[in-house]
Amino acid sequence: MLHFLLTRMYFLGSEPGPMVEQSISVSLSNLFYLPRGENMRLQVGHLLAAVVFALWLVACAGSSTAEEFTRSFQGNAYDPDDFKPTGKFREAMRIEPEGLRITLSPVHGSKKPVGLVRSTRIRGDFEITMEFEVLQVDRPTAGDAGLGVYIAMVSPTNEAASIGRLVRPKGENVFVTHRAYTPTGMKRIHYEKATRTEVGTGKLRLVRTDTTLHYLVAKGDSNLFEEIDNVPLESAEVDSVRFAANNGKSDTAVDVRIKHVSIRGDEADSVSASETRGWALWLAMCALVLVAGSVYWLWRRRSRSEN
Q: Could you tell me which CATH class the domain 67-270 is placed in?
């Protein structure tokens, strides 16, 4: 049995799939329906095989490799398994052939950005890109209005960063780069830089290399990116990415499209992958407990038969 499972693992590769699940079922069946006359060594072999297989499953589920997540919204509705909507989205978002359109009327009244949030786990270097189109953004009366990409990290200082194509209260069209963090015992610190632009369509990109965050933009349909800013950034795990429009907390009309998004990471997985890892760990623990109990039971049975 052990040789069979090791061979199956070799041919299946490093990613558990339906065949793996079937093998687990067979192994567990062997554990609970062992023939009475079976040799003790063979019984222990079955048990050890199940443990090896469960631990391998944990390793596969726990390993994170370079991942690229891409979604086009041009005529395609978003998958609820990939994104969760945020803000007063029901009356504001709709799918069109050109992309995900977000329309905030002057009386929309939403103080939260309206768009999509992807819960994820990104460690190490990453690259996050959003292709956009500005249809109309009126001059806001309070904060900046437009659309952008925002990331939140799991860190003691609650690191966050964003890049946006916005209109300011004085009417300037700008790319805005932003970083925020809260040192221990201090108030939240915000860094911000504005770069003037008249670009109505293009791409926004956040790139982390080591402990530096780079802010880049591309104009129109071009894939030639220009860096407009960079800041120090912790190497903490990114746990959510938001692609959204906002009205600057004012009665401002905003009409934009999000055409395409992508997330690339050195080590990345979705929340569902993390849940799978937890399930696999639970399975391995159960298998270990089962082995310990079964070995003890077999030893007791053999001791009684010898007496």
A: mainly beta
